Structure prediction request, 659 residues.
Amino acid sequence: MDIMIIKQELDALKQQIAYHSNLYYNENRTEISDYEYDMLMNRVKEIESQYPQLITEDSPTQRVQGLASSTFEKVTHTVKMESLLDAFSYEELRDFDRRVREYVDNPKYVVETKIDGLSMSLEYVDGVFTRGSTRGDGIVGEDVTANLATIKSIPKKIKNAPAFLEVRGEVYMPKEVFLELVAKQENEGKTPFKNPRNAASGSVRQKDSKITKERKLDIFIFNIQQISDEVQLTGHKESLDLLKKYGFKVSPRYTIFDNIEDAIREVAAIGEMRGQFAFDIDGAVIKVDNLQQRSVMGSTNKYPRWAVAYKYPPEEKETILKEIEISVGRTGVLTPTAIFDTVQLAGTSVSRAVLHNQDFIDEKQINIGDTIVVRKAGDIIPEVVRLAQKNTDGVYKIPLVCPSCGSTITKTDESALRCNNPDCPQQLVRNLIHFASRNAMNIEGLGEAVVMQLAEKQLIKDIADIYYLTKEDALTLEGFKDKSATNLIKAIENSKSNNMDKLVFAFGIRNIGEKAAHLLCEEFKTIENLINAQLEDIIKIDGFGAVGAQNVVDYFNNDNVIEIIRRLQEKGVNTNFISTVESDVLKGKTIVVTGTLPSLSRDAAEKLIADNGGKASSSVSKKTSYVLAGEKAGSKLDKANRLGIPVITEEEFLNMINK
Prediction:
């Protein structure tokens, strides 16, 4: 074949891989499955194996994917955080064994589960957790110490520890936590994470570590990167055993074998049970146990020669599409769900999968009665992959009438179909659940099951009705006794004193999250001012966009909303914003915090900035007023010096705010 044609194919593959790698590693989302991505990489390897003259330094086979974000301080890894060579067949594992034996004699192999999460480095000095960082490109990662400190399973202090220890692990989100998060995101009208790995990555990179803490992340440690000389190790299994003694959660299943065939049988056994794990795995890893042998073998530009990752193929099943069920979300968006003949996937029975929207159905060209292929994305959430056989004419079209209230629906700019009737019963239930949720009005006991009962009994027809409920009403609900009824009414009463920003977020205005609600309330102070705010007034708020501003204006330009607010006030619900700002000494000042401060955490410093009227920013620019710098301040300090921005110490900062 003409080498120019091959080069064109290779260049196109590189562009595809770069695009999808950026989504996966840096934007925490995906457009293709892991398997489809792996197949793109495999094709690159095939071409480069046949035409080595086409290998370039920028090839995805020559470097670790991912970059360090500018949101966090950069960390240069002393020990490179390498990637792993993937294998997709048992014969490739045998090839790996043959390559190993070209370097060393009688290797022993440790087989471990391959957790599908985000790779992290944890550093300990004299047993104290001092820094945590992402892999990044393997050489430079991001300092996410504050966020990692919220993960309970990361030891903050190790007993009988060496002077220095660096370990590598995989941060992940347990399946149960992931499903709870997806349900919450769907209820709030947000685009849910597609799989636990993206959810974990998005959570660990939050600017606010409180959000990371709420996501209930976990970690498994699978390697010692560095350890001071007083500890001498000879094997990988020995190092995992030591990590367990130090209090780390290590790979949940690791076994040593003296031949590749037994190792392959263990890989197969892990594959058979992967649906039973409480976490997501995408493969199994085989590693040479002897550390001296590893040293002899070394690494390529990207991979260690002493390890290989076997990737399990996605389990797919064909089934008949029996029905398409349409549900209405909190913001009125219609979501189609495929109902099909039950199949077994990843150890569970599956009969439903979301179809997203009409564009997705059109792309797949599916209709009720067709044979479809389904699988579990990340072995967790069922999804329709493609059409297997066309058994019908045409493509299913979502009816242009709301299934809940019968109103005519409209198409939004986001390709979604929406019911605009504010009295739509299904929207009501979703809105009530959001209104009572923890980050909104935080009404304990008013969960989905209770809300559905209240709606069915017509005890609640809008959010204001919550505050007109009586103990007698609560006692009519299934499972409610005197104490539970009393507690519910008390929780409703307590929510009346919430600050106004909680109420505004609870309204569920499209595109208005917690931060935007807080900004609105800081600016307008009272609900009356917010109701009367003009579009241009809202757009002027730093951090507010035109779409969000228009949604606010549209929401309050509704007689039903105004009546609900009047009834909320009638029952004593607070509609004034009580500022948490202690002083305005930093008013108009933008401050960037960088490095490790003597006594303040970054979160604490940024809260003090906000409490004193200033703005905490994550990046240095010409608009920055000060850079508050501590030890190991990196690129942000350098940039501040280049731009001539004043650099202050923690002591100077505390004096500035009279602390």
